[in-house]
Hints:
heterotetramer; D: 69% helix
Amino acid sequence: MSESPVHGSGGPGRSPTAAVLGVALVVVSVVGVLNQAVGESSALHVPTYVVTLLGKYACYALLAVALDLVWGYLGILSLGHGAFFALGGYAMGMHLMREIGPRGVYGHPVLPDFMVFLDWKTLPWYWHGFDSFAFALVMVVLVPAALAFVFGWLAFRSRVTGVYLSIMTQALTYALMLAFFRNEMGFGGNNGLTDFKDVLGLDLQSDATRVGLFVCSTMALAAGYLLARGIVRSRLGRVVTAIRDGEGRVRSLGYRPERYKLFVFTVSAAMAGVAGALYVPQVGIINPGEFAPLSSIELVVWVAVGGRGTLHGAALGAVLVNYAKTWLTGTYPEVWLFALGAMFVVVTLVLPRGIVGLAATTRAAWARRVTGASRAPGEVVP
Amino acid sequence: MSLVGPEVHTPTLLYLDGVSVSFDGFKAIDGLSLVVDETELRCVIGPNGAGKTTMMDIITGRTRPDTGRVEYADGVDLTRCDESEIANLGIGRKFQKPTVFEHHTVDDNLELALAGRRSVAASLRFALGPEDRDRIDELLATVNLRGLRHRLAGTLSHGQKQWLEIGMLLAQRPRLLLVDEPVAGMTAQETERTAELLVGLATDHAVVVVEHDMEFVRSIARKVTVLHQGRVLAEGPMSVIQDDPLVNAVYLGE
Amino acid sequence: MLQSTNGRARTARAPGSDDSRGKHPTMKRTLARARSMPVIRNALRHAAAIALVTGAGVAGANAQETIKVGVLHSLSGTMAISETTLKDTVLMLVEEQNKRGGLLGKKLEAVVVDPASNWPLFAEKARELLEARKVAVVFGCWTSVSRKSVLPVFEELNGLLFYPVQYEGEESSKNVFYTGAAPNQQAIPAVDYLMSEEGGAVKRWVLAGTDYVYPRTTNKILENYLAAKGVAEADIMINYTPFGHSDWQTIVAEIKKFGSEGKKTAVVSTINGDANVPFYKELGNQGIAAQDIPVVAFSVGEEELSGIDTGPLVGHLAAWNYFMSVDSQENASFIEAWHAFIKDEKRVSNDPMEAHYIGFNMWVKAVEKAGTTDVDAVRSAMYGVSVPNLTGGIATMFTNHHLSKPVLIGEIQADGQFDVVWETPGTVIGDAWTDYLPESSQILADWMPPVSCGNFNVKTAQCSGQNY
Amino acid sequence: MNHIIRHRHRRWLVRGLLGCVLALVGPILGATETRADFEAALAGLDARDFADKLRAIAEVARSGDPRSETVLAAMLDGRLAVTRAGGRLVVLPAEHGDAVDVRSGAPVPGLGARQTSRVRINNRLRGVLRDAIASLRLASPDRVVRLDAARALVGGVDASSLGTLRDALEAEGDAEVRGVLEVALAMAEARSDDVDTRLAAVRAMAGSLRPEVRGLLREMGDEERESDPRVRSAARDALDAIEAEVALYGHLSSLYFGVSLGSVLLLAAVGLAITFGVMGVINMAHGEMVMLGAYTTYVVQTLLPDALEISLLVALPLAFLVAGLVGVLMERGIIRHLYGRPLETLLATFGVSLVLQQTVRTVFSPLNRSVSTPQWMSGALEINPVLAFTYNRLYIIAFSIMVLLALVVLLRRTRFGLEMRAVTQNRAMASAMGIRTSRVDAMTFGLGCGIAGLAGVALSQLTNVGPNMGQAYIVDSFMVVVFGGVGNLLGTFVGAMTLGIVSKLLEPATGTVLAKILVLVSIIVFIQRRPRGLFALSGRAAEA
């Protein structure tokens, strides 16, 4: 397990809240202004296409931060975090579907289109309530958190750990994927939920809404980052990293590691759910593909590339890998899977602390070199 | 059973009665009975596989005995408690291999071990108070690590880790200390200091030491329990044990 | 790689060039600005924006201007198996068109992207093609979900998509032309054939499919259709399996049992892709021969058969609008060109390839007719465009954005080809909204005035669910 | 249709014999008009309309001409063709050799696919041809041919051929063939107007498991179809008895399906039991090793197109080597650096799996590859009409158990197995004793991967050979290993069989998807109860 600058007596960054929020606000306003206010003729104009992409990256970054919380700090490699993301997305998607109301292609007052043509007569009970935005928001957090709580309660209590736990989380997301693929479930089967029209009365296709969603995603990322940071810098964070390094020892100190794990796992799942909820209106679709084990593993590599155990590393990794994906799938389509595969191997073999770790090492080496230069030739460097 | 009049001198803190446990048919502990008083320094010796570590595991709740009773203080049945409950009852354990949190500083290691509320919510709000700081300073002095308090525990030497672990043990304010091979890998000087520390602790704690190093045992032991094949082979003062032919045959003579 | 040859910097689009777009307010604004700005600043702006998202490899400062044709097919992931061929088909069509001198005096240039079988990525890539790469038209998608995913993007940015795969219908978007079969161009004629004396006078039906929207809808339609033909509910067995299902023992045994109750039984299979191989192997091994219980498949074509040992499958059926074995002049030259392009004499051709062939030629014709690649102009020009299909007939685009197609029933042969055993006397016009679902039968698609709507409800006279 | 394929070689032999017999008998019968009828009917075989072809087939069959069987069989096989020049009807060779003119029986050399056009048939004609050929073959001296012919006739007999059938029954000496013929006859007589004949027919049909019989009995038990109450009740009783028996065999079938699914899971998982169970390495590229094995089979079949029957036997060792070698390379190149960090191994091997998939996609194209099934693995071992064991799955069950046993022997009885166990239990000690632990690691990992390669050969006979095939098995295989208990081959066996059988027993009631979800969820819950699986090691070793 790589070393992590987790906490901090003496660590840098005394008042991060203002700083992080500041950075987020600056990013948001710069991008927003460059998109909306600066004319397209300007060299500085940011097209809406880029804004949407950045909004999507922000959601991914939030998801990566959530995963890093459990992987980097708690030592649980969850191969099922995509499931929490997708559940949050579905909760939001259900609201967006309900918001369409009678404006579906069949003009049915209540039922979403996919239910109409598959001959459903009434709305399933679990779709009720989602017409309210507030209810949907609660569900966005509650559903993934509840699943994480139940799964975690069972798993941590019986001390399923390590690779077993990873495989179980993978089985969990796989089972959910199969379940959501079933059309009988009433979530639109393979097609999922799509053809959204507006959110809170705002047209999803308008540029202003897109910028708004981007702003929300960035702020959610900032808030998620601060929350995660708050957790890892509290005593709870120290207990949690101690659990990662020696669960038995923590238990013998009188802590109940399973409760700590459960807390962090649940919080992380809720964060993933929020990320999913913000993601869905921006990409315009949510379907069971998000539950695919592959998506969850891909997410792990974002965190690994950025540097696990550092929250900003995770966020950075998410943005970088997805940028690489955008670029490669557009420019060298045949290479993408090779690149992704190579990324897995390289990161685990030579960059166990990711880019952030590499940067730190390089900085340290550079510093040594600078000081070393003043040393007398032939002097032995310890 | 050699009950040493619990009501008479100091009251009994720990009481094992007819405890057995087996793994895959192998009897690791076989009808073990043991009594530890409230202030006492007890050494447990025995050859490899005698069941010393398993005994510790049973006391701390890591392993559940198949049969037998394990009672603590005011009649608490330890077999019904889980590990963290047992720890919170005041039973501290130092493992055979030093297990400190290598990615935490020495300070943080001690802070994590400080007695106090262990709930998730409490730890989320926790802030170090002045008393806690004093206590940590005091502990650092006790285990002689004051100058290293900001070092990551992983960078300490083996002996320093052992001490840190003992410090963490003390931070829990335990009534019973279970110490597994405390001087393994220590220099002679370190060993000597450790012996002093343990003897000092035994004045107001119960201390159970499992050790291989007979020299060390001789230097601290008041009362020794010899385990063999999961049961008590002999028990008594070191001088008596040394001359016991049975003990010599299975252990000391080697 | 094709698009990487486009070089580093940005094409400077001349003011008032062909691809000025139409009515969408945002686009209009965009264009107004675009026309009034100096070329260099335009290039700079794009270079900055594009470099930010897509790296350096977009759009070339070609001396000669090109018309860009987007190709949106998965080249990796689970769908690569089907979609890679279609990418190659479009590349071939583009190459051939350029050999004929291009279009409107310009060369065509294919822009290939890889949505990697990932549905949200389809939407992202569609946006990239339309907004960053400025393609005039996109040929792409295979699965319904990928089409659903890109649909809002095409509607928002007023793009043009040609969708080449047979699908469940229940859709007609202003921005999509559906060149594959609608259910009435595949499923219903196939069932009609099996009910005929010639097809074995089938009385009992197994509807087996992969659990997703196309089989679900098709089977719902067939259920209603069969009920209308007097088939009792007890004589229909419906079964759904997950994607890539590989253990068919139980289901095949059930089919065998269902088929052994004295009435002639057939299986209508909407089983998707990978699940077919183990399904047919199990059929063969459990001794279900085509003359006992024929299977008619809607998703098994020449390309799928090339991955199956077809010996035991001889006699099972498929319904398509094209078979490679069809004897026609157009088909022969198409196959010849395909083999030359792909440099492999063994490669087969299939129905979705023909759909792209038709769609591409229609688009070319419409662009020539309109004299521009402007989406609205091309769309208007598309209606009524007729081009030869590969089976010796004519395909015409109708105002519901669907084609007229012949329906062919073929029997699988040992060499992996199909023998046509039946075909519709003429062509069938694709029906966006089926008549065999109660809600859908009230809806009509017609993109010409006065209706000008893809989902016009004839009862309420409302045009519901439009996003424009 | 499969038994037809299976018996093709036998049929050739028989046809030769039959030809001799008929050639002797023909002149004695001396019916020149049959020859005229035959030749007249031949022309109709190539009619444009399928209905005309149908009539022609009936005429050819009725003509009694010795050549009719050959012609009809060739037509069924799709080998009857018309020369483009001259319109002569010829029988194309099955593999090599010359085409044969139907009328003259003379070979016509130099006819290829371009010079002829095949006589097209459809399913309806196939059915009619099969019945016609069957009735022609009832006189065959080979009881197997007669049995097949009789079976083909069940349910297809009409009043016109009753007489032929009775004659055949009279002449038949073999009990089994007689039994089938009696049922065929009874089915025809069940349509008689005479109540007693119908009753007798019902009695004759009782106990027959043939599906056609059940259909007929169901009709005869129906008030609307059958007027006589005695016949109705007899039919219903007979049907109930048969249905009960069918249900019993149905359960047996389900069990067989379960065992068969279990054997597939076992094959996929047993290699994992080595890499994961023994070495503690999470090999996410395990599925891709299976894929490599399957592609090896494909390559072998492509390189040796004439040796289909032995291709699998050739492929087995090669697949083991290919996958094993890739495994050794992986171990040396990557995994070696990650021992003790199982989660990192998981990620790195996942990366390898992506690379392998895309490599295969680049080399072999993303399309599935066609792997043929040898004759000896096609078809089914038919116990009775409702219970048949498919050969491919029988072989795979046997193969999976053989692999498991071989592995047990390897681990328990060989030097390598001893070293392997030593390294697993105490690396430092083993190393001190002079065991080259790094070599043992590489070999062990190679062994696990090699076995996955073997699984690939087997799976190529059941499912797709394509770049995605490995993905389909990876989650399931991990479930098997974790469920059975890591590091325990017996556990893997019991785990695989349990999962297979439970899935298959659930499936008829819940459907496939739900069955799979239920199984997954129960494993998740089970692991919470027994974190170390079914056959867990307990005590200190397990906690290490």
